[in-house]
Amino acid sequence: MTEPMDYALFKEMMTISKEELYLETLAENRESIQIKKEETIIKNLEKIFKATLKISNQKGFQAMTMRELSQEAGISLGALYAYFKSKDDLLGMLQNQRRAFVSRMLEKEIEKQTQPILRLRAMIRTHLFLSEIMQPWFYFSFMEAKNLGPKEKKKAIESDLWSGNLLEKLLIQGQAEKVFKNRDTSLTAEAIKAMLQDWYLKRSKFRTISVDRYFEFIMEVVETYLGVAATI
Amino acid sequence: MTEPMDYALFKEMMTISKEELYLETLAENRESIQIKKEETIIKNLEKIFKATLKISNQKGFQAMTMRELSQEAGISLGALYAYFKSKDDLLGMLQNQRRAFVSRMLEKEIEKQTQPILRLRAMIRTHLFLSEIMQPWFYFSFMEAKNLGPKEKKKAIESDLWSGNLLEKLLIQGQAEKVFKNRDTSLTAEAIKAMLQDWYLKRSKFRTISVDRYFEFIMEVVETYLGVAATI
DNA sequence: GTCTATATACGGATAGAC
DNA sequence: GTCTATCCGTATATAGAC
Q: Which of A50, A58, A153, B129 would suit a FRET pair with B178, their CA atoms being 20 to 30 Å apart?
């Protein structure tokens, strides 16, 4: 039983870890948040982040006004500023929270496997499933990458490079062990990332396809190209 | 000699058709442009469009101020408004011009071929080469799609659907003629578009790869997946 | 045809009442 | 802890001189 994991199972696993998300954000920004009661903070931060993603994904983060955000989140303009110092600060908090969560999950899931093909599958599957659960953020993150301040932009690029290199390392490892056919690893890794990206960038186009099905499709393309016999 | 076309040749072919671009835009917007001398209009529209793409691709169209644009284009703020009625109007002119050009080129190149595999190659190659020549606009168009007004947005979606359906039709045709292996045509078309998109969205990552090489890579992935022997 | 100066509006952020 | 009212900067767009 090497691969019992489907999306339903993965999702269940994640909902448990979801609570820690806001506790971590709270701890990191405790001094800049003017509210005392932690329960209130978590409840409202969640509303604020959700509203930010909703509006920004419709019209862009820059175009979103604080007045719109206050209305959508159901918190007055003045009260919003008790949770963050500035609009850019809000962006930073959101990005830090989600990025940390994603890379932690990727690392954890890959470490469970040792064989190249299984590690590759774990990486692709985890990325895809995470992007399904957190689709609005993945979309947002891609679209707003160039609008970030210098510090945030640097972190975003590093994080992207990290996962890109990891993918390529898995391909190189597989070739070294003669499991994968010799192909340009850099281009192959980029093609995989392109297909993963497509899932969250064009979510509405995939209405009739399940994530599990899309995962199998990516693996079919990749394994055919790498000359690997299907593993299931 | 079924396929002599490489990027250098394609580029040369395009520079000829480039002049008509601005003549067409001029004709369509003649009444809203307050300048008389046509030579001046074309020269300045080109400067304005170029500057718009440059700034917008760094920080987003919304975030670009008219003052920045005037400085980058070397035209004063007041003078800019002699060429268009509003910032949104400028966006509309730019989008109409480029979109019309792209779909015309795609259609023209595909019509030259009749065999499924050659039509597929023509479509992929033309799209890729166009996105190389007009990379700033392809990037801009993708990133700003959601910021367009309702009319512009509708046109953008239609144009995207059109090329997506065309690609799928080619795949279906190839399967019907038993040239391509049976695969999910909708997902396969989407994967091809994802790889094409990656080229212009992540242009800086492909510094060391030529367009011609990337074209061969895409075809290699696609032809392997569709079970077609390489044609060259 | 192009410039500078300005009218007008709107957005981010804060003050202070409740 | 949350609200309303407001300050202040900056953006689009225009008016009118050259």
A: B129
